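Key idea: predict the complex, not the pieces.
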Amino acid sequence: MNPRAIIFDVDGTLADTEEGHRQAYNRAFEEAGLPWHWDQALYARLLAVTGGKERMRHFVADFWNSVAPTDLDDLIARLYRRKTEIYTAMVRAGGMPLRPGIAELIARAHAAGIRLAVATTTAQENVVALLTANLGHNGARLFGVLGCGDQVPHKKPAPDIYVWVLRQLGLGAAECLALEDSELGLAAARAAGLRTFVTVNAYTRGQDFRGAEAVFEDLSDLNTFARAAGLELPASA
Ligand code: XBP
Ligand code: MG
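Result:
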């Protein structure tokens, strides 16, 4: 029997977005005249903290060997707003395609009557931009529930965003499945009681995915994933 809903993580799962986020942060830092720069190796370490505002705070506390700006809360809020503008412009310009198999899974699951939802630590604007750029102007509406960023007090690996999404769906965890790309995302979904499948990417390959139902490189072989997840999907949408 099909799950009642599939709950998708966004960054790294729907699309390989982390490079875009990283570049957008660096542009926001530059524009603000800050000497901060996040290279790929540093960014991989900073991903230990989910959520951009929390990540900037973590960077200043643990990686910045100079005096922290006095108006840090205000600075982080401003940087985050500007970074979101830069990032959404990159997405709208077509820079963040969906990962292999994702558009097909969305279309076929929707056609099968499976509800779709999102559980992410990023901002809703980013998610709507990503879905609209890749699936057309009704793309975001295919998803009945968008659980994003600051809608809950504690970001992943806390289960809060998944618990919030399940409540909005009016479904129990046993009726749904989750799709994640990272150890912290998997921990959040599992803590909410969800069966969770993982697709890895360059930033998450090699992480600890114990507790996942299965780990895939990507969903290019959608029928194999569907079989593993017990999904009965129409041959095409
Ligand atoms: C992953 C994250 C996010 C992104 C950047 O989110 O931790 O913080 O790295 O997004 P997901 P923001 O739960 O979708 O994997 O800069 O907008 O926070
Ligand atoms: Mg992710």
